[in-house]
Batch of 2 targets.
Target 1
Amino acid sequence: MKIVLQRVNHASVTVDNNIVGEIGKGYLLLLGIGREDTMADLPRYVDKIVKLRIFSDENGKTNLSLKDVGGQLLVVSQFTLYADCRKGNRPSFTDAGDPQLANELYEHFIDLCKEQVEVVEHGIFGADMKVSLENDGPFTVIL
């Protein structure tokens, strides 16, 4: 599993000119599911995300978690995180997960997030999505 986590002031995802997910302060998660990933992997990642302390406290130190600031999540599936560009000029995606299993893992990941975070929005698996965001910092973490 590969996750690009961006701390944002706001973010949205659009499909066919319709906003399907939109958040205020929180994290935009670009989630890539790989061939080796299983349901058992998901709780560890969700726990890390909600406890990750990358929001500033009153002293400007990154001491606060998503829960501490009442942050929101926008989860967007992105198999292209598994692009292998080592050979040639066209990426290979052989390490990306099977689409059916990846969709199941993506949906379960969202369900687990909803158990811990009040506002969880998401894109549509496999759709052509347009993502807009205002990165806060910028602050980007790769898990």
Target 2
Amino acid sequence: MANAVTFNDISLSIGDTIAVDYKIKEADDKERIQQFEGILIKIRGASEPTRMITVRKISKSGIGVERIIPLHSPFIASIKVIKESDFNKARAYFIRDLSLKNTRQKLYTTKIRK
């Protein structure tokens, strides 16, 4: 699959719903883990140290939020695949214009081929 990448033996591909646990440093040497769960819309970078992913989620107020995450970052605690998709394109930019319901219909319904 050309639009897939592996991270710690986990295969990530475009359209998958993933949860990224990201370490955030706060004041006085405190650290907490924040989870960012959304749809993987872009994989960028030719080599392993330069590889980055773009994850998009819809916030509670209905606004789309995208986050660019370098896979080689020491702040990534873990990445989990919540739901796998059958999407075949290299980028999923079209979901920026869709509602959450329409996005689910486009990415996660299996199409019957005749």
